[in-house]
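Hello, quick one for you while I still have it in my head. A protein chain has come my way and I'm curious about its shape. Can you walk me through what the tokens say about the fold? No rush at all, and the record is pasted right below.
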Amino acid sequence: MPQVVRGTRAVRRPVPQGSTVMCAGCATMVKFAAKVRRHQIIANVYVDDRWNRVEHYHPECYASAGEPHGAVRES
């Protein structure tokens, strides 16, 4: 069985319709737009090797914050 690597990571995902999450960078809503394919950065945050929380960012806010959870994975 492959070893599961646990740790904070960030991925780029499309913003789903009906999204009501707040950006951890600017504290405004990460909004869905029908005619624009918007993306968000989702970070699973681990503290002491245990999952702690999920943070959502606008891509530009994540970049402005200096990629606080590492480079963004596209998969």
